[in-house]
Amino acid sequence: MKEVSLLNEELEKRVEERTASLAKSEERYRSTLDNMVEGCQILGYDWRYLYINNTAEKQNKRPKEELIGKIYMEMWPGIEKTDAFDVIKKCIEERTSQYLENEFFFPDGSKGWFELKIEPVPDGVFIMSTDITYRRSVSMLP
User: Fold this and answer.
1) At 135, which CATH number?
2) What are phi and psi of 104, to 5 degrees?
3) Which residue has better confidence, 22 or 46?
4) pLDDT at 34
5) Which of 59, 82, 97, 127 is most buried (CB neighbours < 10 A)?
């Protein structure tokens, strides 16, 4: 009985150490993503926002809390009629990497250009966005 008790204590200790190690690792990766210059978003297979980093929050012009857990098409009415939607859908369905330069029109009437790199990930798709509005506007000058 004493041996079983000692084994249980040792096992519990190892589980606690492993759990703490995983939590540190997750925090490190989340901190890295949160501080990237590019926007990072993860959409689930059901098109729900699972993750949005700080840059993507600014690019979306909406607080993360307003988007996390919500369905992409409900948050951006009409998005399913765009090239960006088609490219994301292709990545979800075919599990292939996709790329797109996309002009996005915000509900407030403003617009921006974004370079989108979409990658399949276990939870759905990872979207990395770079704001290229300035670059596109300069290239349009005569």
Assistant:
1) 3.30.450.20
2) -115, 135
3) 46
4) 72
5) 127
Please, which pLDDT band fits residue 106 given cuts at 50, 70 and 90?
confident
**Nearby residues of 53 by Cβ (< 8 Å), 6 or more positions away:** 33, 34, 35, 36, 39, 40, 41
Q: Token match 């204590």: residue? A: 9
Q: Check residue 16 and give its pLDDT.
A: 82
Total domains present in the chain: 2
Tell me the chain's radius of gyration from C-alpha atoms: 20
Q: Do residue 132 and residue 69 come from a single domain?
A: yes
pLDDT at 123: 96
Say whether both 11 and 53 belong to one domain. Answer: no
- Tell me the CB-side half-sphere exposure of residue 111, using CA atoms within 13 A: 7
Is residue 63 within 8 A of residue 53, CB to CB? The reply is: no
Closest C-alpha among 116, 76, 123 to residue 97: 116
Task: Please give the structure tokens belonging to residue 115.
Answer: 């370079």
Structural domain of 127: 38-139
